[in-house]
Design goal:
The complex is a heterodimer of chains A (about 110) and B (about 120). Chain A is mainly beta and about 110 residues long. Chain A has no helices and 9 strands. The chains are: A mainly beta (about 110), B mainly beta (about 120).
């Protein structure tokens, strides 16, 4: 079955760039979405159709996808960006989430 | 503003049944696919089931196939999940989620979730 793998954790200093990877077989052939989830909250869509930001999502969030790896980039990371992030793609009728990455800003 | 409000969670014994509901407002409900996504506390997200705007297309994760049934009532703007033969591993927060649009397979709005605990 199709699987998406993310690094469990990532630490970044305020103002620096965080790059969160998501790996899956031929993932570059698919559209990828990214969700941010803060403690006690439901997930929030931050990137859809691989590169698009929903209304209200800051420009510092961007996405890319090539080969077997999709990447969510947070430029100029802020303390408020500390959260869990999940990638997601659709494969053969099933919605697949990545394993999740905990981003710590310190 | 899109609002999705889940209800029906609680404590249930293994092997028993539970029915979750999601009340939707703020958008034209019968234009969009709807889904259930679950999350074991402290763990990752897992898609459970989805239903198209007209109930013509329904899908389930392998982990719940044959035990869970998704349905919707467009007249009432509601989405349901009937969960039978519950197992300890079904314990999770269950989120109702709205599909972005037909032909686009992701979720642009989520409810706050309802907790289902399966335990003897």
């Amino acid at each position: 079955s199709f699987e998406l793998t993310q690094p469990p954790s990532l630490s970044v200093s305020p103002g620096q760039t965080a790059s969160i990877t998501c790996s899956g077989d031929r993932l570059g052939d698919k559209f990828v979405s990214w969700y941010q989830q803060k403690p006690g909250q439901s997930p929030l869509l931050v990137i859809h159709q691989t590169t698009k930001r929903p209304s209200g999502i800051p420009e510092r969030f961007s996405g890319s996808n090539s080969g077997n790896t999709a990447t969510l980039t947070i430029s100029g990371t802020q303390a408020m960006d500390e959260a869990d992030f999940y990638c997601q793609a659709w494969d053969n009728g099933a919605y697949v989430f990545g394993t999740g990455t905990k981003v710590t800003v310190l | 503003e899109v609002q999705l409000v889940e209800s029906g969670g609680g404590l249930v014994q293994p092997g028993r049944s539970l029915r979750l509901s999601c009340a939707a407002s703020g958008f034209t409900f019968d234009h969009y696919g709807m889904h259930w996504v679950r999350q074991v506390p402290g763990k990752g997200l897992e898609w459970v089931s989805g239903i198209s705007w007209d109930s013509g297309t329904i899908g389930y994760a392998d982990s719940v196939k044959g035990r869970f049934t998704i349905s919707r009532d467009n007249a009432k703007n509601s989405l349901d999940l009937q969960m039978n033969s519950l197992r300890v591993e079904d314990t999770a927060f269950y989120f109702c989620a709205k599909q972005y649009n037909h032909g686009w397979y992701y979720f642009d709005s989520w409810g706050q979730g309802t907790l289902v605990t399966v335990s003897s």
